[in-house]
């Protein structure tokens, strides 16, 4: 069976141990989770000169793909969501990365491409739809870095269907969180401290889920986390299947 093609925008890296130059990368655990699910992960070069991506170009590039995965990464520039002056904790902001990811999110959702957004990816979608972020959750005692904690999932959500659970143990690494949700988005899960841990988009033309944690960290041993990737790839396969085969 052909593997549906899953677009994953690359992350810029200043250096890697195996290369002599700056690189474009994604976490191996993330790629392997998509592969286990039966998908063909494909890195997408972030092209947004001056921090602005051409909508027509992004749409044309996406046309060949069956699904999208928006991965984790550094912080979005606060001005992208009217956040004012950047908090001292904001890190790894890249204008081209921001511009490309935001347009990719808009185009993927507009086209109804099955989409899974992870950590930064959730924040990108929220900002792309007009939402805002808390720039910092309050330092080491309140942030969710290097934390595995329980997350309560709302009933009758796509997230509940994908994970098969009402509560999951989430591996988190973030110091920012959703403030105001973007247009049409609803909260699908929260942490005990009230932090939004997942978003959905009821009425979306294609399957969509966004989680603030990193399911790839434990997907190799936790069926609930792997279920997110399985569901993404299943939706992508269904979308790519010729109409005569959908019976």
TrEMBL record:
<protein>
    <submittedName>
        <fullName>Gamma-glutamyl-gamma-aminobutyrate hydrolase family protein</fullName>
    </submittedName>
</protein>
<dbReference type="GO" id="GO:0006598">
    <property type="term" value="P:polyamine catabolic process"/>
</dbReference>
<dbReference type="GO" id="GO:0033969">
    <property type="term" value="F:gamma-glutamyl-gamma-aminobutyrate hydrolase activity"/>
</dbReference>
<dbReference type="InterPro" id="IPR011697">
    <property type="entry name" value="Peptidase_C26"/>
</dbReference>
<keyword id="KW-0378">Hydrolase</keyword>
<dbReference type="GO" id="GO:0005829">
    <property type="term" value="C:cytosol"/>
</dbReference>
<dbReference type="Pfam" id="PF07722">
    <property type="entry name" value="Peptidase_C26"/>
</dbReference>
<dbReference type="InterPro" id="IPR029062">
    <property type="entry name" value="Class_I_gatase-like"/>
</dbReference>
<dbReference type="InterPro" id="IPR044668">
    <property type="entry name" value="PuuD-like"/>
</dbReference>
């Amino acid at each position: 069976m052909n593997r549906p093609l899953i677009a994953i925008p690359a992350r810029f890296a200043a250096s890697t141990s195996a290369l002599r130059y700056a690189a474009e990368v994604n976490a191996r655990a993330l790629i392997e989770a998509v592969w286990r699910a039966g998908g063909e992960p494909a890195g997408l070069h972030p092209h947004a000169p001056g921090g602005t991506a051409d909508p027509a170009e992004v749409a044309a590039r996406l046309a060949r793909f069956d699904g999208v995965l928006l991965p984790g990464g550094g912080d979005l520039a606060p001005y992208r969501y009217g956040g004012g002056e950047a908090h001292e904790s904001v890190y790894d902001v890249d204008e081209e990365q921001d511009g490309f990811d935001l347009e990719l999110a808009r185009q993927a959702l507009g086209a109804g491409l099955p989409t899974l957004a992870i950590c930064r990816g959730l924040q990108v979608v929220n900002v792309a739809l007009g939402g805002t972020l808390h720039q910092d959750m309050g330092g080491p005692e309140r942030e969710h870095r290097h934390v595995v904690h329980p997350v309560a999932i709302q009933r009758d959500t796509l997230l509940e269907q994908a994970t098969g659970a009402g509560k999951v143990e989430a591996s988190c690494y973030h110091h920012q969180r959703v403030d105001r949700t973007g247009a049409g988005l609803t909260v699908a899960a929260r942490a005990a401290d009230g932090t939004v841990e997942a978003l959905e988009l009821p009425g979306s033309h294609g399957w969509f889920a966004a989680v603030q944690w990193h399911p790839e960290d434990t997907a190799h041993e936790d069926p609930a986390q792997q279920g997110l990737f399985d569901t993404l790839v299943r939706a992508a396969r269904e979308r790519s299947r010729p109409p005569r085969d959908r019976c």
